[in-house]
Design brief:
This protein is mainly alpha-helical. The protein contains eight helices and no strands.
Length: about 190
Amino acid sequence: MPEQNECNSEQMMLGFRQGNEASLSVLFRSLCPALCYYASKITGDPAAAEDIAGESFLKIWNRRQDFQTFVSLKSYLYTIVRNACFDWVRKNKTEAGMLVGAAALLEKAEASCLEHLIAAETYHQLYDAIDSLPVQCRTIIRLSYLEGKSGKEVAAALHIDHTTVRTQKHRGIMLLRKRLRYFLPFE
């Protein structure tokens, strides 16, 4: 599976460097949720986080020739987002007349940046793994675990039997364990 991901990211990067907007769209759908999560943890403002993440894609699009690998592009995106978040915190806290509070908030944000980065990447890997599940299994996992619906609610929403929901949830968990085995602390 890692070889397939490397091949896909190489193709996406080639298209991205050539100015293919579809490749940018794939990149955006893949990384934007994790970047928004990361930015919202630093700023504490989900709307500002979305703006910052969106603007970061404009910046990389304008410099698309500079990136040779997906890893370097992703690293640069996180750096852009982190720096923009710090600027946002400085500006907004200063405007509110809380310069001392802004300094304390920045210090706290800088200290926990690595934790937020790790969490954002973990969410990114989890959502990618969920997206790779078979359609019905993916739908049931999303409804059950991401939206918090009970087995009966999922069965009613999808017009399927409750035992099918249980079977698909079990199947989904087994497939996720296999796909995310490098992230699990044991097994």
